[in-house]
Amino acid sequence: MNNKTKINTCTLGELMIYQIALSIEDGILAFHGFGSPLVQLALHLAKRNHAPRLILVAGATYGINPSPAFLTPTTNDFAMNRGAECHLSIEELFDLAASGRLGRMFLSGLQIDRWGNMNVTRLESNDRLTLKLPGGGGGCNLSCDADYVTIWTAAHRTHADAKGRRRYRLVDHCDFITSVGHRTAEGLPRSSLSFRGRGPDCIVTDLGIFGFNNEGHAELRAVYPDTSIELIAENTEFDFPFAEKMTTATLPDPEMIEFIRQLDPMKIHQRELSHDDRERTFHLNGV
Amino acid sequence: MYTRTDKQCALGDLVSHVRSGDCVAIGGGLSCREPMAVLRELIRQDIKGLKLVGSAHGIDVDLLCGAGVVAVSAESYVGFEQDFGMAINYRRACEAGVVKVEDNCCYTLVQQLRAAISGLPFMPIRSVQGTGFLKLHPEFKTMICPFTGEQLLLVPALKPDVAILHVHYADQHGNLHIEGPPVADVLFAKASTKVIATVEEIIPNQELAKKGVTIPYFYVTAICEVPYGAHPTSCYPRYAYDREHTAHYYQTAKDGADSFLKNYLRPFVHDCKNHNDYLEAIGGIARINRLEQWNCGIKQWMQLYE
Predict the structure, then answer these.
(1) For B232-246, how does the pLDDT look when each residue is reduced to its tens digit (9 = 90+)?
(2) Which residues of chain B make contact with A137, given a CB cutoff of 8 A?
(3) pLDDT band at residue B76, thresholds of 50, 70 and 90?
(4) What is the model's pLDDT at position B306?
C-alpha cells in the first residue's frame, strides 16, 4: 500500500471498526445489514486481514463479497455492491440464518440491557408510545438465529440534563424487546427457547468493550486509552462485573487505518459518532 | 390470474386498483427502486386508510404518512439510515396515534408471504419468541412441534390486497424484469391479490425474455410506463439516488407538518397534475441527467452524495 504520509494516530471510529472486525471469525458467513457503516467497514477490514475466507453478505443488496467503490450514505446502492461475485435473495439470507448457517450478525439498539436484549422499536411511558424508533428490520429474527451476535453502539456516553437525569443507552430495562439476548424480560434463560443461535458475545461501544459471562450478563472486558472503569460505570445504568483480565483495547495498525480511509473517503461512518467523538484520536505508539 | 394481452394503462387508472383501506405491499427497499410516482398519484387521488406491510423502507412510507393516507404500519424498518436519521413524518404520525404501530420483522414477513404463496394457513419459525413483537401481534401463536417437541411460533399467511412495484422493463403482457436486488418484490407479487407496476421502459417480449423474466405476467394486474418513476430513490443502472432532493424533503418535514404540506406536498405532489409536471418541478431533464452520470466515474458518483 502506498503510504506516503505516515499514519501516527487513529480515530475513535477506526478503533471501533477494528474492534468489531476482531469479533469476526474466518470462514463464516456474515451479513452487515443496513444503517451500519461501522459494521460495513469492519467486515471489509476483517476480510482483508485475518478473515480472507469470510463469506461477506452486503446488507440490502444481498451481494456476496463485493468490492465497494466507496461507502455510501444509504446501504441499498450499487456502489456498495460493485463486483459482488454472486447474490442472495432476501428469503435465502434469512433461510441460511434459520438453518444455522449465519455465523455472525451485528445489531445495535437505542436501549441495550445487561443480558444483551435491545430496543429499536419504541420508547414507552406507562405503556404509551412516547418515541417511535425506526424498527429493527430483520434484527429480531437474526438475534435468535445467527450463531453469534456482535452488539455495537457509538452512543454509550450519556450527558446529564439540568436536573442531573440521563437517558442511558446501556439501560436497566428495555421499554420493548426488539432483539433477544441471554435472558427474556420475564427472566427466562435463552436456553429455554428453541433458538439455534447462541446470542451476543460482545458489545463494542464508544467507551469500551464488554463480553458476556457464563450467566449471560455483560462484563467489562476492555477500556480505551482515554476511558476508565469509572467513566464507563457512570455512563451505564446497570452494575456490571469485570472480566478476569481487564485490558486496554488494542489499536489498528497504519495499513488497516489507510484501508478504512480509502474505503470511506466521505467519512460516512463518522455519522454514527457524536460531534465530540469525531475529534477523539489515539496515538498508535501508545502515547 | 391476469391474462389480458395488453396490461398497459395510464398512471391514474393504474392507481385506481388501490382502494381506501387496502393492505398494501410497497416494493423496493430503503433508497432504491421505490414506486414513488404511484405513491404521489395515490395521494392526489385521496386514497386513504392504508395498511402498509414491508421490510426496510424510507421515503416511500414517510411520504404516505406525511400525506395522512396511512392507518396502520406493519413495516420492519422506516427511516433514512445514517444519511438523515429517523423518518420524521412517520414518527409524527405514529406518536400522534394517527398510524397504528404493528411493526414486524423481515423473516416473519417472508414466512407469512410464503404461507400465502403456498396456500397454507401459516408457517412456523423459531425466532421472535421472547420479544415484544408477540404483544404487537396477538395473532401469532405457539405450538409444540409434533416431530421434535420444540416450541415454535406460527405466523399466519399474509395476502396483501395490492403490491405496488417499480421495475426496469416490462412487455405489454405484463412480464416484469428487475435488474439488481429484487428485495421482497417477487414475494409480494406472488402473495398479493393484485400487482400494479410502473416501468422505466416497455419493450417487446422477445427482448424482455432475453433479459430474463423476474415476475411472470399472470401475477400482474396492470402496468404503466413511467420513466424515472422511482425518483428520488434510485433505479440503477439507469439513475442514482437523488440525495439533494431527499435532503430538501427531509428539511421540510423536520420544520413541521405545516412546512411539509406547504413546501413539499403542494409543490411536488398536489400541484403536479402528472409525473411530467413532477419531473419539471424537481429540475427537469438537467437534474435527471445528473443522476444518470453516476457511471461516468467514481468522482462523479461520489459528488452526487456530497
Answers:
(1) 999 999 999 999 999
(2) 55-56, 76-77, 105-106
(3) very high
(4) 87
CA distance B173 to B171: 5
Euclidean distance between CA atoms B101 and B112, whole angstroms: 18
* Confidence category of residue A127, pLDDT binned at 50, 70, 90: confident
Which residue ranges form the domains of chain B, and what is each CATH number? Answer: 11-103+159-288 (3.40.1080.10)
Evaluate the omega torsion of the peptide bond into residue B121 and state whether it is cis, within 30 degrees of 0. no
pLDDT score at A187: 87
Measure CB to CB from residue B77 to each of A91, A134, A185 and give the nearest one.
A134
Query: Do the chains contact at A35 and B79, CB–CB below 8 Å?
Result: yes
Q: How many residues does chain B have?
A: 306
Question: Which of B57, B81, B143, B151 best tests the A interface by mutation, with the highest count of A CBs <10 A?
Answer: B81
**Chain A: nearest CA to B80, how far in angstroms?**
8
Closest CA to A155 of A164, A165, A167, A143: A167
Q: pLDDT by residue (tens digit) across B202-211?
A: 999 999 999 9
Is residue A149 within 8 A of residue A114, CB to CB? The reply is no
Residues 166-225 of B with CB under 8 A from A: 180-184, 186-187
pLDDT value of position A286: 62
Q: What pLDDT, on the 0 to 100 scale, is given for residue A193? A: 92
CA of A135: which chain B residue's CA is closest?
B77
For the segment A18-43, the average pLDDT, to the nearest whole number, is 97
Q: How would residue A4 be classed by pLDDT, with cut points 50, 70 and 90?
A: low
- ipTM of the shown complex: 0.96
Burial B17-36 (b: 16+ CB within 10 A, else e): bbeeebbbbbbbbbbbbbbb
Beta carbons within 10 angstroms of residue B67's beta carbon: 23
Q: Does B144 touch chain A (CB under 8 A)?
A: no
What's the count of helices (H) and strands (E) in chain B, helices before strands?
14, 12
Helix extents (H) in chain A: 12-22, 37-48, 78-81, 90-98, 139-145, 229-234, 254-263
Q: What's the CATH architecture for A9-272?
A: 3-Layer(aba) Sandwich (3.40)
